[in-house]
Amino acid sequence: MEQQITREDALTRKGYKHACHIMLYGDSSAKLFGKIPIKHIVLITVIQMQMRFDGLLGFPGGLVNPSNETLEAGLSRELHEEVGVAVPVGVDNHVSTCLSSSCPGLITHFYIKKMAESELKELETAAVAKATDHGLEVLGMVRVPLYFLRNGGGLPYFLSHSFISNSRAQLLSALQRCRLLSQGEIEKAVSQAEQMRRTRSGDPH
After folding, report:
1. Partners of 22 in the beta sheet?
2. What does the DSSP assignment read for 5-20?
3. N or C: which terminus of the chain carries fewer CB neighbours within 10 A?
4. DSSP of 139-195, one letter per residue?
């Protein structure tokens, strides 16, 4: 469990590294197969970790040095490298700051920003055509499927994949915070995802 601290407290601590990540999302009127409402677009990044194409999922962002730039300016810089667009990020987009439990000496900052559907589509195009990290640290952009299909397809199957650090917990918290899904829908998705993981590991219980 990540220990939450304030943004202000984090900036006074010495000897820590800071990592900023952001969830970019927007409303959508599109329908899958012409009948299943997409409802919202949520972008997360497939990241190459430790110079390996390991396929872990995480939000756009990276390490920021508060002594050289603000957290938000650093995050905007990271976005430019990863998605090809320097998306403006403000303090009002900040959601949480935590002491990392998986990486001692690291403080993580999470942001959420709502954008227009047209802006998100432009960003997806730029991520392939302009981003300097495309094909290197970042393998590509994917949309989180905020819907349910038969046999656990859609969000449950997506959640059953592997995420970097606490990105999965951040996603679930953000879906609830932004009211993109109901608490019941989130609990259903998590339950089905865990069942899929157990089935893959050979443990039906």
Report:
1. 111
2. E-HHHHHH-SS-EEEE
3. C
4. EEEEE---SB-GGGTBHHHHHTS-BSTTHHHHHHHHHHHTTSS-HHHHHHHHHHHHH
Residue 116 token pair: 């227009």
Residues 6+ apart with CB under 8 A from 19: 61, 62, 63, 64, 100, 106, 107, 108, 109
How would residue 118 be classed by pLDDT, with cut points 50, 70 and 90?
Answer: confident
- Reported as a pLDDT band with limits 50, 70 and 90, residue 147 is confident
pLDDT digits (tens, 9 = 90+) for 26-59: 888 776 767 766 778 787 654 332 333 467 888 8
Give the per-residue pLDDT at 51: 31
> Tokens 């679930």 — which residue?
172
| Phi, psi at 12, each rounded to 5° | -95, -10
pLDDT at 1: 67
Class of domain 3-145: alpha beta
